[in-house]
Amino acid sequence: MRPSPVSRVLAGCLLLALAAAAPAAAGCTATLNCNNSCFIFSYACPAPSSCILSCFAASQTLNCSGNSVCSVGASSVTCDGVQQSCATGPRCSAQGFEAHCGTVTKVCQFPPHPCSF
């Protein structure tokens, strides 16, 4: 026995309604705290400056979102094949007339300019 045209239309509508009610793909996320905060405390500028520089860089946090595959490694996160990595090397350093902490740079001032903190 063949289904009637009306029952085929109703079955098609039911399939469309079920497909529309199905949840979208959940996706995924990955997060990693790099634990690489650092600071410079009391860097004495070379003469003729008398400034003392200090700075701090908070630990990096890596985040990514993907559609299917997300993973967290020891120093990186990967989402759908795109990798982000924690900074390598020193994030805080002081040499000469500058101190660097993350993206912050402090510069020694010379007389007659006052020191900035």
Strand content: 35-45%
Shape: rod-shaped
Low-confidence stretches: 6-24
In angstroms, what is the radius of gyration? 29 Å
Number of helices, where a helix is a run of at least 4 consecutive DSSP H or I residues? 1
What structural class should be given to the helix and strand makeup? mainly beta
Major pleated sheet: 3 strands, antiparallel
Mean pLDDT figure? 82
Helix content: 10-25%
In whole angstroms, the N-to-C terminal distance is 88 Å
Notes on the protein architecture:
By secondary structure, this protein is mainly beta. 15% of the residues lie in helices and 41% in strands. It has one helix and ten strands; from the N terminus they run αββββββββββ. It has a three-stranded antiparallel β-sheet with strand order 5-6-7, with no helix packed on it. The protein has a three-stranded antiparallel β-sheet with strand order 8-9-10, with no helix packed on it. Strands 1-4 form a two-stranded antiparallel sheet. A hairpin with a 2-residue loop joins strand 8 and strand 9 (98-101). It is rod-shaped, with a radius of gyration of 29 Å.
What are the defining features of this structure?
mainly beta; three-stranded antiparallel β-sheet; 117 residues; 41% strand; rod-shaped
Secondary-structure topology with pairs:
Layout: H1 5-21, E1 28-33, E2 38-44, E3 52-57, E4 61-66, E5 70-72, E6 76-79, E7 82-85, E8 92-95, E9 98-101, E10 104-107
Antiparallel strand pairs: 1-4, 2-3, 5-6, 6-7, 8-9, 9-10
